[in-house]
Amino acid sequence: MISITGLHKSFGSATVLRGIDLEISQGEVVSVLGSSGSGKSTLIRCINGLEKIDGGRVTVDGFDVSKPRELADARKRSGTVFQLFNLYPHMTAVQNIALAPVEVLNVPRKDAEAEARRLLQQVGLSERADAYPAQLSGGQRQRVGICRALAMKPSYLLLDEVTSALDPEMTAEVLSILANIAKQGTTMVFVTHEIEFARSISTRIAFLDKGQMIADLPTEDFFSDKGMAMPRVAQFLSKMRKD
Amino acid sequence: MPTILSWLNVKRSGGGWGTTPLKNAAAVDTDLLILLSETGFTIEARRLQFDLSILAKHIPFLLEGTWLTFKVCLISVIGSLVLGLLVAAARTSSSTFLNRLSAVYVDMFRNIPFIVQLFFFYFGLPEIGIYIDALSTGIIALSIAGGAFTSDVIRSGILAIEPGVIEAAQVSGLKRATIFRRIALPIALRTSVRPLGSVFINLILTSSVLSTITLNELTGSAKIVASQTFRPFEVYFVLLVAYAALTWSVSIVIGALHRHLNRNQAEGVA
Ligand SMILES: Nc1ncnc2c1ncn2[C@@H]1O[C@H](COP(=O)(O)OP(=O)(O)OP(=O)(O)O)[C@@H](O)[C@H]1O
Ligand SMILES: [Mg+2]
């Protein structure tokens, strides 16, 4: 379980997260929605320990991410997929995927690479297994990014706008892969602007507004009268649908 | 004109100002021509023979010097690379103490003329009882000075890495040292090949200063040959060509290495 209680985060004098409470259990797919600047990326970065938190508590399966000793264990349980892929440019797809299993989980290199190839095959990239990131298209790079996160067998997958750097065609190919992963029961925290997709794969929607979680509802409720009853949510949804 | 080269000399008529009459005028077969004289100056054109053959018997000695330069430079390049890597690691580490220490080292050795550093090591240290032979002093001094520049290049290479790439490594649970060794360093070295090449070429050029501490490397041996033959023109011409060839071949190797290491990267990088 990912458990967030009273999370505060500021950058200098700007408070970005103001007391977030959120619990994510195994098997859930939680989409985090909210307008630009509402703090979605910052929330993800507080869960994977990339930002120091200023108040409250974030634990992953009981491991407190603000304690250096426990961060490593917390990070072993979650995997992150980035908007701009962030692949290691000097390594092939297989090497990108196998690095952490070998170095962190001490999997023998041969096994880790075989597993990497299996993952790549699942996302339709067997042919490109030995290509370098610069030799791949954006959609292909993101599929490698997803495999890299999955290779650590994380309990939780954190995804921050993983399709917003992709054109519509590539977005579709990446989303269909994510839908598959969701179906297999992987827990996901999914920051996105793809409202319809969020609706189709999420069990729950968390809505951030100016650093506060103003809605945390089951998907059907969020997109029904219940959600629409909240002016900020209604405003956001109508704006997103217009775009 | 049958001669290969003309040599101009300016002389004020009546006074000895500005002339350096060739010491060995007889030996060099001068053919003096008064070209013109105006406002008290005489311009003489001496036609000299440019004759490399007189260097023939000194070739083994010059080759010895070349070999010494090669050896000193090779060891010093390796030395600066090792030192540069360690210092770059220290400068990008999370320890404030290591940060400061390495920054002081880099600033100090980049901001002092190499010849002063060298004299300090060779002539200064014996005063406090530390004696190091000329060869070791040369290698140590070159490595320390080169290490300062090398670490700076590697550090910039590390700082230029997309932060997201390092973050991806962090969230996957890799340890700091592993990230440095497997991610940061390989990426930084790939982008730093060319600037590192410039540092190493500079190191080769700087190695000529070692002749001032009795080391008969390429420049030192050339000086000796020049004073023995009284043919500074030919000797230093050969020296010039030798250094140019040395550094030119290094830059060829660097270019090839850069292309090889970046062969799988985006067009812009290669
Ligand atoms: N490193 C930082 N330093 C200073 N301010 C920051 C930093 N990171 C984020 N912010 C600020 O925090 C606020 C929230 O940023 P965040 O990236 O979390 O928003 P977001 O909801 O992900 O937005 P978007 O939908 O555009 O990605 C923004 O106002 C942003 O300017
Ligand atoms: Mg964001």
TrEMBL record, chain A:
<comment type="similarity">
    <text>Belongs to the ABC transporter superfamily.</text>
</comment>
<dbReference type="GO" id="GO:0005524">
    <property type="term" value="F:ATP binding"/>
</dbReference>
<keyword id="KW-0067">ATP-binding</keyword>
<dbReference type="InterPro" id="IPR017871">
    <property type="entry name" value="ABC_transporter-like_CS"/>
</dbReference>
<dbReference type="InterPro" id="IPR003439">
    <property type="entry name" value="ABC_transporter-like_ATP-bd"/>
</dbReference>
<protein>
    <submittedName>
        <fullName>Amino acid ABC transporter ATP-binding protein</fullName>
    </submittedName>
</protein>
<keyword id="KW-0547">Nucleotide-binding</keyword>
<keyword id="KW-0813">Transport</keyword>
<dbReference type="Pfam" id="PF00005">
    <property type="entry name" value="ABC_tran"/>
</dbReference>
<dbReference type="InterPro" id="IPR027417">
    <property type="entry name" value="P-loop_NTPase"/>
</dbReference>
<dbReference type="GO" id="GO:0016887">
    <property type="term" value="F:ATP hydrolysis activity"/>
</dbReference>
<dbReference type="InterPro" id="IPR050086">
    <property type="entry name" value="MetN_ABC_transporter-like"/>
</dbReference>
<dbReference type="InterPro" id="IPR003593">
    <property type="entry name" value="AAA+_ATPase"/>
</dbReference>
<keyword id="KW-0029">Amino-acid transport</keyword>
<dbReference type="GO" id="GO:0005886">
    <property type="term" value="C:plasma membrane"/>
</dbReference>
<dbReference type="InterPro" id="IPR030679">
    <property type="entry name" value="ABC_ATPase_HisP-typ"/>
</dbReference>
<keyword id="KW-1003">Cell membrane</keyword>
<keyword id="KW-0472">Membrane</keyword>
<feature type="domain" description="ABC transporter">
    <location>
        <begin position="2"/>
        <end position="235"/>
    </location>
</feature>
<dbReference type="GO" id="GO:0015424">
    <property type="term" value="F:ABC-type amino acid transporter activity"/>
</dbReference>
